[in-house]
Amino acid sequence: MTIAMPLPDADTLERREEIAAALRAIVPGEGVITDADALRPWESDGLTAYRQPPMLVVLPETVEQVSAVLRWCHAEGVKVVPRGSGTSLSGGALPLADAVLLGMGKFKRVLDIDYEDRIAVVQPGVTNLAITQAVEGRGFYYAPDPSSQIACTIGGNVAENSGGVHCLKYGLTTNNVLGVELVLMNGEIVRLGGRHLDPVGLDLLGVVVGSEGLLGVVTEVTVRILPKPETARAVLVGFPDAERAGACVAQVIAEGIIPAGMEMMDRPAIHAAEAFVKVGYPLDVGALLIVEVDGPAAECDHLIEEIARIANANGAVTTRISRDETERAAFWAGRKAAFPAVGRISPDYYCMDGTIPRRRLPEVLRRMEELSRQYGLGVANVFHAGDGNLHPLILYDANVPGELDKAEAFGNDILRLCVEVGGVLTGEHGVGIEKRDLMPEMFSEEDLKQQQRVKCAFDPDLLLNPGKVFPVLHRCAELGRMHVHHGVVPHPELPRF
Amino acid sequence: MLEPRDESDLREIITDAAVGGKNLELCGGATRAGFGAPREAEQVSLRALAGVIDYDPAELVLTVRPGTPLAEVQALVEGEGQMLAFEPWGGEGATIGGTVAAGVAGSRRVTAGSARDHLLGLKAVSGSGTAFVAGAKVVKNVTGYDLPKIMAGSWGRLAAMTELTLKVLPRPRETVTLVARGLSVEAAHAAMACALGSNADVSAAAQLQGGEILLRVAGFVPSVEARCLALPGLLAAHCPVDRLTADDAAPLWWRAMTGGDLHGSVRWKIHLPPRHAAGLVRRLEAVGANWAMDWGGGLVWIAVDRTDDLVRAEAAALGGEAALVAAPEEMRARIPAMHPRATGAAMLEDRVRRAFDPQGVFATNRFEEVADADQL
Predict the structure, then answer these.
(1) Quick one: B208 and B323 in the same domain?
(2) A Gene Ontology molecular-function term (chain B) (predicted)?
(3) Are B145 and A451 within 8 A, CB to CB?
């Protein structure tokens, strides 16, 4: 529990009743929650080690209400934390004691589907999977598929720029979103992008996607939908060690193949998964690779043979090609159950999310083993091998005093290692509070200030989701936001702080 | 024209301009200098900041300096069996930095994304002369704001890029163009939509004036063959299709992708919901426009001789946005190059612009600036 949140503002806490009354005037009925017991379910997101009941929760149902809530909070200097379904693994939706938690769960409607132009317009509270379900009857789907897709919402996906196992071929959220309606902290409603490609002007949409709820609240999303591939096939390959599995991955890509998914598991992850779901994973291997291709049947048949050939040339000890959908599902069942499977062998686990250049994998795994010995905590690795996105799962027991702190320190060392070898702190889970204090490992003071200047253009009073992403919050005036043109200060009569 | 030799030169030039209240226009090969209003700012060419910094084909990542000629970058990745999947194109002397800053994408854009989707990371110098880094050199990253997105297509209005990291992808082993001829605009459009909405994995679809559509099928040979066999059946309700030789197909794709040789002294580039593309060209044919269509109808090139903004009005009426890409100087002085935005979005955009360039060093009158974006 080493991550500190900003100290609550005593004045705001004292005004809680007044704030609740004002928000009830905007969102009548049951839309404002203040009862301590009723606030309990909102106290954390997917980063459950951190809990903080919000000052109150507001659940608007219309864009006008969102705008009015934000406008009021802006005018009164009250902080706001937006939330989708609360599945963030980095604490992006962690409430603050002195902030309004703005839940977008009531925005659940699919507004329009245009099959001719291959887009869907949905409200932000629609789940990721529900988009696919809405269009699959006509042979379409929404490509990004984070593992929480049955629960996570598209609004949250936009905030976090969510990925999934298929993003090497199909991209992250940002590559699949065409437009949003966004409410700024001052209540202003703006549209960025829309129903066509490459809108005019600066790509503000590109910055809003992945901004972790710090720039605005999304109230409508337009996504691209894709024709569902004709078929998919997978191959399950066991290697004596991660080095040879990594060489296989590199050769697959070097031969021009971009698989739909390419997942690696290390020995502890394989054993945990097999013990849990019993799908026939080989237990005598050091690394397991699942490679999936999708597309026309002729393509899948061709590529799966090519991949099997490459695997064998790289020292595979077992190679199984899926013969039907049941077998393909079985290959994935273990990988998809890897997290709960690890949850069975350890009281608690902590999921990390760095990306590395793939060629550095053997070295990173070796040094992770050293760290594991040093901290006395086990680690199991699942890995989006195609794009270098590592998910080490650190095994610990929160009931043992000090072990959570040790797990966090171990995790931080892993992420430092990722940056050291040329990678990044987070490939898909976001910075949130979790990696906030590690940002200086990857970015200089100037780099971070440039990002914060963009924040200031959207939310100059820093009221939206404070305490997330940035390790140090500079006031916007400090960052030189004020526009001094040819030495003339605009509005010289106004006081500047 | 100023030509900095390295980043430190560039920082000095920009800092001096910021202090002295001078305007600078960033450029690469200046091949698209005719876009935007006439202006007097001094040009700063980044051509001398050239060369490949790192290229590891297996990692799918290329890091390059902005002044590297686009053709050189394309030849380099082709040599490794790879490509820039957004299919950038440019004239003689175009640089990779300029091409990305102009947000240029070719026919594959409809399925593979634009420059913004393939710019992973960068180094740049802001309008206050400060160097900063954004994004990273790996293909999957969500650490901090995605500033590379906003730098792609920013036309040098935010910062001077000194290093770009781009995603590269394997080049298809085989590419076949299927063609259908003699179709009405509406029938051609329906056939394109059908092909792009099918699972035959059509990577590009274009329509040319005169009732021709082009469909591109690319990938591994057995897959391409199977899809070329399947497509006539999928399109049975629309039109018969034939194969074109690569030599015959190339100039047709070029016209769709670039507007090529369309006749007319004024050139517009329209982005719009594809379902309205047929309606748009019908309305503009009535006033004598020549046109070509790419991205399944999401991009329409219009060539006319008239120098008013009727084309922009017609595009706007159908939910589109029209950029004035080539016109006589008198017209460019009068009509903004970029489609006007709604007030709220325009003011937000201007605040973001000043987050990178507080002194307005890169605000050259080339594009319309909002007078006072703080007044909300």
Answers:
(1) no
(2) FAD binding
(3) yes
Cα B360 to Cα A134: distance, rounded to the nearest angstrom: 47
Full domain range(s) for residue B312: 259-334
Instruction: Name the domain boundary from A103, A132, A163.
Output: A103
Residue B224 makes CB contacts below 8 A (sequence gap 6+) with: B172, B174, B175, B176, B217, B218
Q: Are residues A222 and A329 in the same domain?
A: no
Q: What is the pLDDT of residues A121-158, one digit of tens each?
A: 999 999 999 999 999 999 999 999 998 899 999 999 99
Q: Cα A2 vs. chain centroid, distance in angstroms?
A: 22
Structural domain for A330, as ranges: 230-273+287-335
* Pairing assessment for the beta strands B61-64 and B159-167 based on DSSP bridges: antiparallel
pLDDT one-digit tens code per residue, A163-217: 888 899 999 999 999 999 999 999 999 999 999 999 999 999 999 999 999 999 9
Say if A495 falls within a structural domain. Answer: no
Judge whether A178 and A206 are in contact, CB under 8 Å. Answer: no
A-chain CB neighbours of B349 within 8 Å are 201-202, 204
CATH label of the domain that carries residue B197: 3.30.70.2190
Domain assignment present for residue B190? The answer is yes
Cβ <8 Å between B153 and A202: yes
Residues B178 and B154 in one domain: no
CATH number (domain holding residue A36): 3.30.43.10
How far is B161 from B47, CA to CA, in rounded Å?
12
Same domain, A251 and A302: yes
pTM of the model: 0.96
Domain count, chain B: 3
Strands A110-114 and A99-103: unpaired
Quote ipTM for the complex: 0.97
Domain-terminating residue out of A52, A84, A103 = A103
Residues from chain A contacting residue B140 (CB–CB below 8 Å): 163, 167-168, 172, 355, 384, 387-389, 427-428
In contact, B198 and B93? CB cutoff 8 Å: no
Q: At A488, is the pLDDT very low, low, confident or very high (cuts 50, 70, 90)?
A: very low
Are residue B180 and residue B58 in the same domain, yes or no? no
Q: Which of A359, A440, A353, A442 is nearest to A393 (CA)?
A: A353
Distance CA A171, CA A193 (A): 18
| Shared domain check, A173 and A239 | no
Q: Decide if B272 and A196 are in contact by the 8 Å CB cutoff.
A: yes
8 Å CB contact of A424 and B299: no
C-beta neighbour count of B72 within 10 angstroms: 14
Q: How far is CA A494 from the centre of its chain?
A: 41
Q: Are A140 and A217 in the same domain?
A: yes
A327 CB burial (10 A radius; 0-12, 13-18, 19+): middle
Domain shared by B239 and B316, yes or no? no
End position of a domain, from candidates B257, B281, B316: B257
CB contacts, 8 Å: B141 with chain A: 355, 424, 426-427
Residue B149 Cα to chain centre, angstroms: 13
Nearest to B352 among A174, A204, A485 (CB): A204
Candidates B144, B222, B321; nearest CB to A199: B321
